[in-house]
Amino acid sequence: MRCRTLFAAGLLVSAGVAMAADPATIARAGAPGVAACSSCHGAAGEGQGSFPRLAGLDSAYLARQLDDFATGRRANAVMSPIAKALASADRQALAQHYARLPPPPAATAARGDPAGQRLAMRGAWAKSVPACVQCHGPGGRGVGAAFPALAGQSAAYISAQLKAFRDGLRKNDPQALMRAPASRLSDDEIAAVAQWFSVQPARRPGGDP
Ligand code: HEC
Ligand code: HEC
Q1: What are phi and psi for residue 16, nearest 5 degrees?
Q2: DSSP state of 112
Q3: Ligand 2 binding pocket includes 177 (Cβ within 6 Å)
Q4: Shortest CA distance to 65 belongs to which of 135, 157, 190, 156?
Q5: Domains of the chain with CATH codes
Q6: For a tag site, which of 7, 19, 120, 205 has the least CB within 10 Å?
Q7: Any atom of ligand 2 within 6 Å of the Cβ of 135
Q8: Residue 202 backbone class (left: φ over 0; alpha: ψ -120 to 50; beta: rest)
Q9: Mean pLDDT of 79-84
Q10: Whole-angstrom Cα distance, residue 54 to residue 139?
Q11: Residue 109: predicted pLDDT
């Protein structure tokens, strides 16, 4: 009995491996119709320039973003064709792969913009903008699958996403939770808060919440 169960489990495991390609290989070298993730997101998913860091982000958040790119719920000229070319099992496997990688170390030498810090920690209640950390967690380290980490994320990427939410170009946020605050932010506020989050230390996998 025990033997048969083990045998069945073994079959399931090998079937799974045959269906999904090795995510580390796709990340490093790509797949047919899919450019290597590392060529934009960095060798260890650390992000570079306006390409977001993926390392250490929540796996369910990453998987949903890849699914949204594939279905068109989130539109991007670069990412949409890549996500469409990946099998659903590969999108899942890549999300888990990147979630397990450690985020890059904090830029300890860089000073956070004080106006950005105020907005992040206290919000701007005069215009109904809640503190970012109310949703994105203390220090912007992220909360579960719904609220992505902003700490240690590229400032250029954070700015671009805030403008995309504000201008209605990104609208895959559940219940417009992110479009509402973004719609009330000025370019200066966006630049300041993006810089502040980019120099905050990211949560280490398995580390403190
Ligand atoms: C040619 C460059 C390029 C390649 C190759 C690439 N990406 Fe991206 N990726 C981007 C850009 C640009 C964005 C930001 C899209 C936007 O502004 O909405 C992005 C965004 C993402 C996001 C959303 C992150 C977030 O925080 O919401 C995920 C997840 C992602 N990419 C995964 C991947 C994976 C997995 C691969 C490899 C299969 C890959 N990318 C390959 C350029 C690239
Ligand atoms: C009411 C809750 C809420 C508040 C307040 C909030 N956010 Fe968000 N934010 C979200 C949700 C939910 C998402 C994820 C959208 C999705 O699922 O695609 C998000 C996504 C983002 C993203 C995209 C991250 C990525 O990896 O693509 C950025 C950048 C961001 N928020 C910045 C901010 C900043 C800066 C503030 C403060 C000015 C803020 N948010 C306040 C709920 C909130």
Answers
A1: -60, -45
A2: P
A3: yes
A4: 157
A5: 2-100 (1.10.760.10), 114-198 (1.10.760.10)
A6: 7
A7: yes
A8: beta
A9: 97
A10: 18
A11: 72
- Is 161 close to ligand 2, i.e. is its CB under 6 Å away? yes
Ligand 2 in contact with 134 (CB < 6 A)?
yes
At residue 204 the predicted structure's pLDDT band, cuts being 50, 70 and 90, is confident
Q: What is the pLDDT of residues 158-187, one digit of tens each?
A: 999 999 999 999 999 999 999 999 999 999
Show the tokens assigned to 55.
């390392």
Residues paired with 147 in a beta bridge: 143
What's residue 208's pLDDT? 54
- pLDDT tens per residue across span 111-163: 899 999 999 999 999 999 999 999 999 999 999 999 999 999 999 999 999 99
Distances (CA, A) of 10 to 15, 23, 118: 9, 20, 54
Closest by CA to 197, choosing from 133, 123, 103, 124, is: 133
Select from 22, 34, 38, 40 the residue to mutate for testing ligand 1; criterion: most ligand atoms less than 8 Å from CB: 40
